[in-house]
Design goal:
homodimer, alpha+beta, Glutaredoxin, Glutathione S-transferase Yfyf (Class Pi), Chain A, domain 2, 2 domains, 4-stranded mixed beta sheet, about 10% strand
Chain lengths: ~220, ~220
């Protein structure tokens, strides 16, 4: 059965692959699992039909027969459990890879996401520079810790895993900020993720949606 | 083998059970799994010995023989996978329970955590009231969506699961704000979680640590 995911009809990131359907597209491409996409307008995301799938009215969702899931982390995990290549077989290594999934979404992402939000919502406030600077201090603390842990390894714990997939997608939000470049091993880590053929296929697929919406 | 978790020597929440060791203690109590606790000072959390266990220098960690984990979500999941009662057996129901775990930590928690942070860090800033109000608007949007989804059910999806455990721990951070009371089904949901004997044992255990530290 071909799973169906939802994505933005017109992503607010301008096709940079920062919306959360990218996490799921990338995981499906790593897994070699074909999928269909249903595109949603911002209006449709808040309508009862979509709220029945996603209680918070967001994207992505994942439908596969009787199963309907939301939350990109949970969807990536579901895919990773059912296909080779995203979670190690060894029980302890698997638990550690899952730890990095949660670390990406619950420790690294919040201040990075807040910075993106502040750049949109608070830009004209008199305290904008102060707020941005505080957020960037928090982000740098996390990046510094992550950089120390990664060291000169290719991936966070042995082979590439769903933990790396989520961490790379979270760190990509910092591109253009200059912060990632302060930690050369983290820049190289993100570049290593982006160089994976599955990443490229996922990226091109989301970009094609944006391009079609912009020229259509 | 008895697992060992780490917790604050003196929790900044004054024994309210809001620190993240509470998530893990509660899961271990639901699972009927005895555990040991190693208490850490704020200084010790940033020292190399602890950073080897937790790259971001936080609590909790979880050690069990050769395995060392961090991130409360990942630790709760590890416990839930190995013991009955925290994840359903049916594959689809299990995937949905895991979805609620990620939703608690990646969708509900960030604005709630930010509000707690703002109340400590930004209280004397000229823009404090504006920032607090914006955060509370975000939180109310999420609470409203969650309340609609929960309806008059006891738990988020069928029987109590690790998804409920994490959601209740996250919502407890709002106690005293008055916001939870705006959604009576969510207040009742949190109360239902707190009434579980395993919650009470976990709560009492973390409170005993705080009380000992305060009177010692």
């Amino acid at each position: 059965m071909t799973p169906i995911i939802t994505a933005f009809e017109r992503s607010p990131d301008g096709g940079k692959g920062l919306a959360r359907d990218m996490h799921v597209r990338w995981a499906l491409e790593e897994a070699g699992q074909p999928y269909d996409v249903r595109l949603l307008s911002f209006k449709a995301m808040k309508e009862p039909e979509h709220l029945a799938l996603h209680p918070f009215g967001q994207i992505p969702t994942y439908e596969e027969g009787d199963l309907a899931l939301f939350e990109s982390g949970a969807i990536v995990f579901h895919i990773a459990e059912r296909h080779a290549g995203l979670l190690p077989d060894d029980a302890n290594a698997r638990a550690r890879a899952i730890t990095w999934m949660f670390a990406a979404l619950n420790t690294m992402e919040p201040p990075i996401f807040d910075r993106d939000l502040a750049k949109v919502l608070d830009r004209d406030e008199p305290w904008y520079e102060q707020r941005l600077s505080a957020l960037e201090d928090s982000i740098r603390k996390r990046l510094s810790d992550l950089s120390s842990r990664l060291g000169d390894a290719d991936w966070l714990d042995g082979a590439f895993s769903a933990g790396d997939l989520l961490m790379v997608t979270v760190l990509r939000r910092l591109q253009g900020s200059g912060m990632l470049e302060e930690y050369p091993n983290l820049s190289a880590y993100v570049a290593r993720g982006e160089a994976r053929p599955a990443f490229k296929r996922a990226f091109d697929a989301q970009l094609a949606v944006f391009t079609a919406a912009s020229t259509g």
